[in-house]
Amino acid sequence: MNVTTTRGTLLAAFACVLVGASFTANSVLGEYPYAGGQFLRYGLACLLLLPLAGKGSTARLRALTPRQWVRLILLAAVGMVGFNLTVIAAERTAEPAVPGVFVGCAPVVVAVLVPLLDGRGPRRAVLYGALLVAVGACAVQGWGRTDGAGLAFSVCALAGEVGFAVLAVPVLRPLGPRLLSATVCAVAALESAAVGVLVDGAGWLRRPDTAEAAALLWQGVVVTVVGFVCWYMGMQRIGAERATLFSGLIPVAAAGTAPLVGTGSYGLAQAAGSALVGLGVALGSGALNLTSARRRIGGRARRAAPMATFRGNDRPEWQGARAPEMPE
C-alpha cells in the first residue's frame, strides 16, 4: 500500500467504527420524534461543517449541474433520511439483526454495481473480500424473527446504504469531502423537517432532555461531522468499492461496545464474524496481495517503475505525473 491508500483505509475504517459505536446513542432517542431528531442532528452538523468547507465553496456549488443537484437530493433522501426511516420501520416487525444482516451485504452490491456503472467488470479481489465481509457481518449479528414487511423494509435499508456510497461518487470530486458533507447535511435537515411536518404535525420537534441532548450532540458532532468527512475522504482515496468494505466494521464495533454498556454480549460467533470481516477487508483492500508479493520477491530490489494509485472511483493515476487537484 502507498501513503494515499493507507490513509484512505484508515479514514474509512475510523468512520465505520464511529457509526458502529453510536448504536448506544440511538437507543437513548427511542422516545424522541424521529424527524425532529434528524433535523437537529443534520442541521447542527451543517452549521459546524460550513466553516470547514474551504475557500471557493460558493463557486463550487454554483458550478454544479441540475443533474448533480438531483443526485445530492437523492443522496440525502435515500442514504440518510430514508435509510434511518427504513431501519426504524423494519424493526417494528423484525428483530434488529434482520436489517443489520441486509445492510451487511452492501459491500457485495457496491463491488458489483460501481464497476458496472463505470463500464468495467468487478475487481475479483474486492468482490471476494466483500463476500467475506458480508458473511462475517451476518455472523456477528446473527438472524432474528421477521415477517414480510420487515424483510421489505430491510431491503430498502440495504438500498439506502448502497445509495450513500454510490450516489456520492460523481459529486465527490467537484465538492470534496467537507463541502459534500455540509451540503448533504443541509439537504437532509430540510427533508427531515418536511417529513416531520407531514407525519407528526406540530409535535415533530420538541426540546430534548439531558440524555437526548447528549445523544443528539454525539450523533451530530462525532458521527456526522467527523464520521462523514472521514468516510468521504477515505472514499476519495481508495474508491467506493474498497471503502464500502469497511462498513462490515459497523456491526463489529457495535458488538464490541455493547457489553460495555450492558446491552449485549460478545461471544464465539461475534469473534468468528469479526475475524471474517477483517480477512475480507484485508483481501479486498489489497493488503493480503501486497504481503504475498513481498514474500515472493524476498529481499530482491524491485525495478524502478511507475506505480498506480487510486482516487475517486478506483481509477488509476500514475505516480510521477501531475494528479488533478481535488478539494478536501
UniProtKB/TrEMBL annotation:
Pfam families: EamA. Residues 7-138, 173-283 form the EamA domain. InterPro entries: Diverse_Substrate_Transporter (IPR051258), EamA_dom (IPR000620), EmrE-like (IPR037185). It is found in: Cell membrane. It is a multi-pass membrane protein. It comes from the Bacteria. Residues 308-328 are annotated as: Disordered. Its main location: membrane. Keywords: Cell membrane, Membrane, Transmembrane, Transmembrane helix. The chain crosses the membrane at residues 40-57, 69-90, 96-118, 125-144, 150-172, 179-199, 211-231, 243-262, 268-290. Belongs to the EamA transporter family. This is DMT family transporter.
